[in-house]
Amino acid sequence: MIESNLVEKVIRSALSRGGDFAEIFVEEKTTFSASLDDAIVEELSSGTARGAGIRVRYGDTTGFAHTADLSENGLLRAAQAASSLAQNSSKSRQIMALQERVFSPIDPLKNLPMTIAKDRKIELLKHLNDAARSAGSAIRQVGASYSDSLRRFLVANSDGVFVEEEQIRTRISISAIALGDTGMQGGYETVAMTKGFEIFQDLDIEQMALKAANRAILKLSARPAPSGQVPVVLNGLGGGVLFHEACGHGLEADHVLKESSVYAGKIGRSVASPLVTLLDDGTVTDQWGTFHHDDEGHISSKNTLIQDGVLVDYMWDQTQGDRTKRDSSGNGRRQSYAHLPMVRMTNTYLMPGESTPQEIIADTEYGIYVSQLGGGQVNTATGDFVFGMTEAYLIEDGRITAPLREANLIGNGPEVLANIDAVANDFSIVPGTCGKDGQSVPVGCGQPTLRIKAVTVGGTAGA
């Protein structure tokens, strides 16, 4: 993207006023997106954004500047701006020699979406629309969206890191609205992976659309959800986001070091049921939160956070790692070149257990089976959370029976982890977009089917 001699020159310029650390991050991102609303193309956009971010750190002070000017003069101006913002007066440190450039290209077997005609992408959306409407006359509105991106970045720093990487992502989704005597209900499906257009070789578009539409139709006959403390069974496609939000953010080192996490100071202590092993893993093949190197140039890794209920580690970026004299865990991520990196999750998931999903359901005399969770709110300092159940069913006498109207799950992350009393041997990861401090990054959220023996449900019927 830029030559190594210019990279080194920029880093030296960034440290010309002194500092402990300097970094250059250069990015080029090409995107395409299209959306369809009731068979009409509502939005179509494409473009390429390029730029660089320069970071200088001195003690706990960070100077940061970004620019869309990738000329030598533009980069050096940004380096000087970052240097002045760091406000330091130490001697200029000697930078380590840049390592031989590590290049992680896209797998040549992947079919670059940028080479596919936009009309073919729009045809996929029209196929989704037609298939969803074929589910029945109750379907009154259908929306579908498609997006793909090719991201190239280079990151180098004064510690000698020199990495260049290419990342590809493709996403398609559908939402269907059904109308009945009880009002309107919705269903949606999303598929998103770090794959190219080959994602559609194994994806049954028609079944994806019918699944969303049939979910919306089924919810028209839903009864009010019970309220109060009840056992809850979360399936693999529905519950991963709960553990991402209610537990994962509290295991990010920046929250921990600020003591704004309920998990601060608890390494080596039991924080969950012995059935719980929680990992953050940026190496899972093709998943939405997967990459070879993070946005600070550190190799992606598989990090065990909770082992058999015991807290064993947190997630680290370079800044938090330097403060505690430990290595980054490959969790330094940023939304774009115009943003500072911070500790972020990748693919966060609970490991499977030994029971079958059928055994867990049969062993639950009364409770709620959750297939899909919606948005929610979490307090990382306490672990308290509220999540919406967008698809749920009643469990009676060990069988899944009636669909339930949307309601809330209300609880506390550590308490939920402690109350997991059954874990199945199935497993699923679903894609998501994680927001933190104004930045959004792609992540994966995964789990097996599991049971929480008691969670508060904010329904409208008595438990």
TrEMBL record:
Q: Which Gene3D superfamilies match?
A: PmbA/TldD superfamily
One Gene Ontology BP term is: proteolysis
Coiled coil (UniProt feature): none
One annotated GO molecular function is:
metallopeptidase activity
* Listed SUPFAM superfamilies: Putative modulator of DNA gyrase, PmbA/TldD
Task: Check the record and name the InterPro entries matching this protein.
Answer: Metalloprtase-TldD/E_C, Metalloprtase-TldD/E_cen_dom, Metalloprtase-TldD/E_N, Peptidase_U62_metallo, TldD, TldD/PmbA_N, TldD/PmbA_sf
Specify the superkingdom: Bacteria
Q: Which UniProt keywords apply?
A: Hydrolase, Metalloprotease, Protease
Membrane spanning segments where? none
Q: Which residues form the Metalloprotease TldD/E N-terminal domain?
A: 22-86
Secretion signal: which residues? none
Which residues belong to any copy of the Metalloprotease TldD/E central domain? 118-220
What EC identifiers does the entry list? 3.4.-.-
**One Pfam family, short name:** PmbA_TldD_2nd
Q: Which residues form the Metalloprotease TldD/E C-terminal domain?
A: 227-459
* Cellular component annotations (GO), alphabetically ordered: cytosol
Family label: Belongs to the peptidase U62 family.
Name this polypeptide is given: Metalloprotease TldD
Q: Which organism is this protein's natural source? A: Acidithrix ferrooxidans
